[in-house]
Design a protein that fits this description.
The chain is α+β, with helices and mostly antiparallel strands and about 375 residues long. It contains nine helices and 17 strands. Helix 6 runs parallel beside helix 7 and helix 7 runs parallel beside helix 8.
Length: about 375
């Protein structure tokens, strides 16, 4: 009897499990057939002739962008251009961008680039590029439109939060060369360090600049400026956070597969010997910038001042495809030591100080956030 019951259980398992899987597969194949039918109807009935290959590329990209703003498809040409150094043949504007609701959104303008000098701000929406509507374009196509020969002009039509009329910016493309770390001594006692991106040697540069600043005996505090820093390498964010922490968790990542979940911890040793640390952030501070600001805030190691950060708390991986193209796919998410996700929330400053005017420029007389930080450190 027991043997019969055991055999019956095995039979039921074998009979029902594949049926459930089979049903799901049938549904998928039905959807694929439906997609083929729609494509056929478009090809036969649409008012204009279409390139079916381009339509398929758009469909693939639409699928990826339905997941989140950072996943995207790169056709072979775009993927090749991304991998190849242009060596001055092409110029750019100096902005980090993403896609939101079919429009290109500025994550951050990079310091001392044409976009930054022209007054492009984090959170701006690019609706037209040289009279070409961005709506309906993929992110890769929009980025391609913004590239061009060095010295060539480009016109961007921008929509900005809180501004009713569209703004027009005429910019000349340049070769973008980013110096990721700058430093100086303010009032002979405040060490100011500006980090514009997390490159493969950013931590080495910061360590070098801090050691240089520490030679001044009257130094009593530091400002780490992460405004308009769109992020970069996770490894660098961990190293830079570790510089200022004695112990504790820095960041963790969670993936679909539990075996790929990871945590990183600080090692003993504070590079600035416990001196007061103030971190500046704004809406252009994203990804790796948010990891550093969030870790230092959660451990109460730094005062965070400025505006709420961007909220890009995810990790993308470039996955090559058989057609020599690739997909950029979100594979994990960042979590702060508190366990909070950065995604779509960002890091909230301890002291909120907004930009005072449209003429605001970082590290100039109009930089009311830096001025506030200096007054705060002066007591």
């Amino acid at each position: 009897m027991k043997k019969l019951r055991f055999c019956l259980l095995i039979f039921i398992s074998i009979f029902y499990l594949p049926k459930t899987v089979l049903s799901a597969e049938i549904d998928i194949y039905k959807k694929i057939d439906l997609f083929g039918e729609v494509l056929e109807k478009i090809n036969e009935e649409y008012v204009d002739d279409i390139d079916q290959s381009e339509s398929m590329d758009s469909a693939i990209n639409g699928l990826l962008q339905s997941l989140d703003p950072y996943s995207a498809y790169m056709p072979p040409k775009i993927f090749e251009e991304m991998q190849t150094e242009t060596r001055g043949e092409f110029g750019g504007l100096g902005i980090e961008v993403s896609m939101e609701a079919g429009v290109v959104k500025v994550i951050s303008p990079i310091d001392d680039t044409p976009a930054s000098k022209a007054g492009i701000k984090a959170g701006d929406y690019i609706v037209k590029i040289d009279d070409i509507q961005v709506q309906g374009k993929t992110l890769s196509e929009a980025v391609d439109l913004m590239r061009g020969p060095v010295g060539s002009p480009i016109e961007l039509i921008i929509r900005r939060r809180g501004v009713k009329k569209a703004l027009t910016f005429n910019i000349v493309r340049e070769v973008i060369q980013v110096q990721s770390v700058k430093s100086e001594l303010i009032q002979d006692k405040i060490g100011y360090i500006r980090l514009t991106s997390f490159n493969d040697n950013s931590s080495d540069q910061i360590e070098k600049q801090i050691k240089k600043l520490k030679k001044n005996k009257s130094l009593n505090s530091f400002i780490l400026d992460l405004r308009n820093n769109p992020g970069g390498l996770l490894s660098q964010a961990i190293k830079i956070s570790d510089f200022f922490l004695e112990n504790g968790e820095i960041v963790s990542t969670k993936s679909r597969k539990k075996s790929e979940n990871r945590k990183w911890f600080a090692r003993k040793g504070d590079i600035i010997d416990g001196k007061t640390l103030l971190v500046l952030i704004n809406y252009g501070s994203a990804s790796a910038s948010e990891i550093v600001a969030g870790a230092l805030k959660d451990h109460k190691r730094a005062i965070i001042l400025g505006e709420n950060s961007f909220g890009k708390g995810s990790v993308q991986s470039i996955i090559p495809l058989k057609n020599k193209g690739a997909i950029r796919l979100t594979v994990s998410k960042y979590y702060l030591p508190s366990g909070k996700s950065i995604s779509e929330v960002g890091v909230r400053p301890d002291i909120e100080v907004s930009e005072e005017s449209d003429d605001f420029r970082i590290k100039t007389e109009t930089d009311n956030q830096l001025n506030y930080a200096i007054k705060l450190l002066n007591g």
